[in-house]
Amino acid sequence: MPKRSRKPPSDPIQAAHLILAQLTGEEPRIVPPDRKDPLAVELGRRGGLKGGKKRLQTMTPEQRKESARNAAAARWGKKAP
Q1: Residue 31 within a domain
Q2: Statement: residue 81 has pLDDT above 70
Q3: Amino acid 58: pLDDT
Q4: Residue 62 lies in a domain
């Protein structure tokens, strides 16, 4: 049975790398897209840890109630998978 050809990656840089690897006979190194930059993750986490407390301090009780209502509606309004 013949080998099936793969679709080229949607990322143009990875596609170019794959083509170049095929031309030179090297094994292509394709980096999975789910890798995250650890520094960016850490910076996002720092901001996320501060955000909720700061938001709580700046909101009025009425705004907090409205936010809680919206959150509950979003949670309970989802359909079961």
Answers
A1: no
A2: no
A3: 92
A4: yes
